[in-house]
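QA checklist item 7 of 12: single-chain prediction sanity check.
[x] sequence parsed
[x] length recorded as 373
[x] structure emitted
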Amino acid sequence: MDTAADIYQNHLNYVAESIRNHFSDEQLVVYSAKRNTGSLTYDGIEIGAERVAKEIEDLIEQLARDDVCVDRFSIVGYSLGGLVARFVVGLLDHKAYFKRMRPVNFVTFATPHLGVRTPLLGYQNQLWNVLGARTLSQSGRELFMIDNFRQTGRPLLSVLADPESIFIHALAKFETRCLYANVVNDRSAVFYTTAISKYDPYVHMDRLRLRYVENYGPVVLDPERPFDTLSQEDLPTFYDRLRTRGQSSLRRIPILIALGVLIPIAVVGFLINSAVQTIRSQRRIQLHEKDEQGPGRVDRTPLFVQNMRVGLEDAFENFAAIKSLDHVGFKKFPVYIHKSSHSHAAIIVRTSRAAFEEGKLVVKHWLEKEFNL
């Protein structure tokens, strides 16, 4: 029996290699999707998912020609790739692939399931919402939920979480669904969205005593009881907090000076690159849409099993998405990365760096405790 596991993006090289080392080649076929990497991720979740789904279909056909029978299927998504994965499984299920192979494992690492739009007030947050949505082409519009998906009057992420959508129905067919979410230092996707939560309980870490999964501390937190709240007596004194913050601030002075010089240059470079990539992305999207409307093309996949519900607004959309995804059932593992201030990359060991070593324990936990063959 053979299982195909789709790994989205080259960022997951360490995860893919860990799977290969954990299981024999006779048990598992590990494949990394290649048709939606790099700047192609600007083109949006739907187009990216269509590319990856077609790539998986082609792989299954090629394996069949080589007399390899795929009877089980697992999929891994990291960051934006987790949203693409949720779309992909809906497309595959609509084509009856899950009648031929058993959907087993669905996992995401640091995926912004609720988007990246910040609900906080203040001009900095408003600036983030406005600029972010307009500098990443279609993917930016979808992540900040200002898009009108297929003229439904709703953002794509809202449709993706609708309980009557093909995406939720497909997701529910997987035997295991789990996610790993950073509790600190993830500037790309904060905890509430990666953990599908109404709030972030880790804002004041000094008030918590963390509880870890046995043998996976001090990185993977216990999902059933991730922390205890410290009593007033156990909290650091005002002077202790002041001293700690003062020492931390002194250590940061050289870094802050360097950032003061580098950030303006980096921002200009980012905006220029984003503008170029957005223009290129829009051209690709137009060609894709023209191809979809060409002769010989079939109608696009229907989105809903039943009639769609009416649209909601902002926070209510998120609450509805949380309710729907929680109903499907995700096992949620908070992750506390200590050694790196870039936990978004460290959680899956995106590159071979000593500061990312803690991510190896995250991947190890998933393979040893949550992965079903």
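[x] summary fact logged: Residues 2-120+147-230+299-370 form a domain with the Rossmann fold fold (CATH 3.40.50).
[ ] second reviewer sign-off
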